[in-house]
Automatic annotation (TrEMBL):
Compositional bias ranges of the Polar residues kind: 589-599
Taxonomic classification: Bacteria, Pseudomonadati, Thermodesulfobacteriota, Desulfarculia, Desulfarculales
Gene3D superfamilies, per the entry: Aldehyde oxidase/xanthine dehydrogenase, a/b hammerhead (3.90.1170.50), Aldehyde oxidase/xanthine dehydrogenase, molybdopterin binding domain (3.30.365.10)
GO molecular function annotations of the record: iron ion binding; oxidoreductase activity
PANTHER family hit by this protein: XANTHINE DEHYDROGENASE, XANTHINE DEHYDROGENASE SUBUNIT D-RELATED
Protein name (record): Aldehyde oxidase
Domain (Aldehyde oxidase/xanthine dehydrogenase a/b hammerhead): residue spans on this chain: 17-125
Positions of the UniProt region annotated as Disordered: 577-599
Pfam families to which the protein is assigned, alphabetical: Ald_Xan_dh_C, MoCoBD_1, MoCoBD_2
InterPro entries: Ald_Oxase/Xan_DH_a/b, Ald_Oxase/Xan_DH_a/b_sf, Ald_Oxase/xanthine_DH-like, AldOxase/xan_DH_MoCoBD1, AldOxase/xan_DH_MoCoBD2, AldOxase/xan_DH_Mopterin-bd_sf
Amino acid sequence: MVIGEIPAKRGALEKVKGRTLFGVDQGQPSDLVLACVRVFEAPARIEEIDPTPALALPGVVKVFTYKDIPGSNRLGIIPVTKDQQFLAEDRVLHPGQAVALVVGIDQKSAEKGVRAVSVKTTPLPGVFDYKKALLPDAPLVHPEHPTGNLLSSRVIKKGDVEKALSESYVVVKNTYTTSPLEHCALETEGGRARIVDGRLEVKACSQNPHYDQADLTRFLGLEAEQVRVIQAETGGGFGGKLDISVQAYLGLACWLLKKPCRMVYSREESFHATGKRHPFEMVYTTGADKKGRLTAIKAEMLADTGAFASYGLAVAMRAAVHAAGPYFVPNSLVDLKMVYTNNPWYGAMRGFGVPQAAIAHEGQMDALAEKLGMDPWEIRRLNALRPGQETITGQKLLSGVGIIACLDALKPHYEAFKRELNSTPEYLEGVGLGAMYYGIGNTGVSNPSTAQIEWTVDNKVILHTGVADIGQGSDTVLCQMAAEKLGLEYSRMELVRGDTDHTTNAGATSASRQTYISGNAVLNAAEDLKALILDEASEMLEAAKQDLLLSGEKISVVGYPDKTLSVIEVVHSLEQKGKETRGEGDYDPTTQALDQETGQGEPYETYAYAVQAALCQVEQASGMIRIKKVAAAHDVGKAINPEAVKGQIAGGVLMGVGLALMEEYKPGKSENLQDYHIPTAKDAPEINSLIVEEPCDTGPYGAKGVGEPALIPTAPALAAGVGQALGRPMRHMPMSLERVMEALEQRDQEKGSDHDR
């Protein structure tokens, strides 16, 4: 039995010993070095780019502009919104956009060349406040876009919201806001390109090498067979390495110069050049009956995608679908608008808009509980989705609906936190809850995965997968699944992954999809391999296939214990016939596209569920917040590797601490980790990870994902806990020192007014 065991994480020992070569480590001493010329006064019209001063410098080899791009300069992760120019053409749309690429013999030469390139621009009117982007007089970011600054509008309609709200016993209406966030992966973007046998080979950090290959071929005007992309070991991503980055620059310079090149973003350049989490403003109106049952939800949501679409369409759709949270709501109206601005572009980040929505729907549950005099846990359990009920998109849930199991698992810890509350004149304390559900995979569209497993003539068992492991542990989990299905020891599994020459497309490492979708593809490949082996063994043993038993590396005939073969004998027999012992597998979740008018449909095949509780403390004199304890109950279907699940939960909680308390990307001001603060080990609370296993009928061994779900409930729980401590709801993230002090001052003013009366 391999499932449920905790084998050593693949690659962990090499990382601990410092032997792992990440994308930033790929360069060789003789490589040419690349650096971008970026313009920070934006928006602006480009009047002239003069590379002459740079080319006059010793060590500068070449300066490229958009005119040198042999293919399409329109890149973007979603086919219908390829609006990103990797080298700006006539206009700079956001501060920090690249306008030229300098090639030097070393880093110093390239950087000198960047400073020497002369760029003349004329300022243009811009829009930086996303709440003003749709005003009639707002400057247009993309004048050619058919709907102006409106990238996307998503609507979810079910029932009669206005009637339900008018008949509700209690109605609460509140506004919630979130800020842009930077990914801050430990490794910045980096990689190397070279020409091998006349083909372009790019090895870089990535969350999807096959997407990178498609973008590079389009960018360079090449055929797919001319480009090989290899995912280098990747030191974290969180969505930030889904969009292509250094790969395009490496491909351009290497292909045109026919010399090996390397490129690594500094931390500052990573801040300037990569996508952020979308900021949201959400106005929620929620109704309930006298018993606390939800009657209706109305959510008006506005979000900023910045200068380029990137994942804006996907974030808009997912946030709208999840706007009501893991609750049964008979009437709903969600209206989400995603707009362009001249801010740095906002892309994929862990949760795809659901962390923002969760802050609002969970704040509303707490507001209703307060008005009704109910415990926050009780109102959540009363309304939690159950098998047979429908989501706000009209999808009837069947198996694996684990939100009630999560609530029940969490309750003892929640009650213990309440008993521990100890507010004093120096410190205020509060307990908060946060719940969520999260659709596994892409929303309402085909998002398949593929895998292959081969048994070689030298008796190796090799899993081939295009899945990019970015630290989450998919290498380990997928090998566990394959070993389990084949009846082998985990140590027998070898792995080839993330190489477009040797693996097929497994889709992006995003949307918590790889354990579920690629896991199913791996199991199907294992079944196909078993079938090939047993078909051949049937001939060799002169026995019916259904009478054969494959156990580990031996095949026997039921009832005839002495009639056996080893698998390697079967493999050699197939080889002599010119056949490979290679199983193929694929999997594509069954979904139904959302109706354009109503948003009704079945966007995901299954959902993950979670509830977290937090014990929070606020120092009255300083406003400093300390998160003392977090209990996190997550329904993962089946924990293939329990320690990996716990690690994901702990990492997600700490990332949620950053979202809730300190992280806020400010364009033009947040340029490094001195200006942008992320949680450290000293900010980590005591975390109790509670694994809930509500089996999913369609999951591999019942499993679902936990990548995004680990983060989503944390900020709502912290907001509720801090709000309870302060006696005032906290609805704007992050809960900065200034916001906490403002809440304390307002509380004191209200106390003074009460005293005067």
